[in-house]
């Protein structure tokens, strides 16, 4: 039995503090179905304390008034500590949410470190103030921190998504309240330890594990200036509704039903090897997973056979076993949701090519076999609704125009890919698919470029200068006629000297 991890306090304003409520969150192993941890459940009064600490730290504290280099020094220490403790972080997350450890080392832990690192790169090169020629004279345009940020993150990649919000927010000079999911609060205590040791000033960050009710209280709090949320479409709509009462700014990274378009000239083996990990990553519990595979009818049978064989060869088991490629789903409700969709797919007339139920001999744990449906029509529920698990659909198409039409015929627009022998042609296909992130002959997510979705996949962007800018306000300062900034004057003098 795994040793029970218990935390009795909440990280508020930079200190571990006794909670004001009495409720407790029990963390249950998706593999053993046993309780592996307990943490306090934050109460609304704890939210009030955390927001007040963040408000004071922003309005009166040193953090927003430090130089960028000083903030980078602190964030750099956070990044370095995550790199040092990446194996510990990956193990804890795997025990919480069932993510395969072998995948989690890179995606859950080192991936989070890369997000912090990329944000530093963006912050260093970002333009915070510039002088422009206006219609009536000179203007100065400034970018200033937005204020107090509520960062609400999901259980599937908790440290990665936390980094996507906290790294740009902190570097921009904001303060923050992080709200982890009740399924994965244990890794958040590692982060609390890291930021404390890194020298983050008191009040700048609080961490409050809680459920939806307390999340709503947080995002609707009048002391919050911006909400950054990652989660379901339904959750995002609710966040937007609650935040709108205070006209609080929101960034929403929501669901996906991404299509991988296989063109007729794509190499079979390379394409199968590339799409399988993109479809079943993190046990299929990934918003960017390639869950609709569009295949030309002319080569459908051959591709279906090869893809089903690769899927059936995936190793299912204990998420902490380095050999495991697909672990259990995060909760019993997720397991049942996936089994229900498998039943629905069969009732709709789709054909199970591999999988289709619980793995044989695994009566304990919230496991579902890697499941591949063939002969799927894009009107079926299994092709339109986000299942969030190891259930993938093969959809045949006639010509490329039809393939692009099917790819775009979705309420979502988060990710996607195209597979072809002609990269230039693949880029052309990428331009025609309405989705926020796309890959040609690969699947990746670059932290220096904008990440986000079209349609129901969300609002705003994370990563890159576009994501960094989400944590900054824009201010225009009108300058009097004849004014010349010291920098402009110095440049002019240097130019005159060079001419002389």
TrEMBL record:
Enzyme class of the recorded protein, top EC level: oxidoreductase
CDD domains xrefs: ALDH_AldA-Rv0768 (cd07139)
Sequence ranges assigned to domain Aldehyde dehydrogenase in this UniProt record: 24-477
Keyword Oxidoreductase: yes
InterPro entries linked to this entry: Ald_DH/histidinol_DH, Ald_DH_C, Ald_DH_CS_GLU, Ald_DH_N, Aldehyde_DH_dom
Keyword terms of this UniProt record: Oxidoreductase
PROSITE patterns, sorted: ALDEHYDE_DEHYDR_GLU
Superkingdom of origin organism: Bacteria
Annotated GO MF terms: geranial dehydrogenase activity
Entry keyword annotation includes Oxidoreductase: yes
EC numbers for this chain: 1.2.1.86
Catalytic residue positions: 253
PANTHER family: ALDEHYDE DEHYDROGENASE (PTHR42804), ALDEHYDE DEHYDROGENASE-RELATED (PTHR42804:SF1)
Family: Belongs to the aldehyde dehydrogenase family.
Stated name of the protein: Geranial dehydrogenase
Organism: Streptomyces jeddahensis
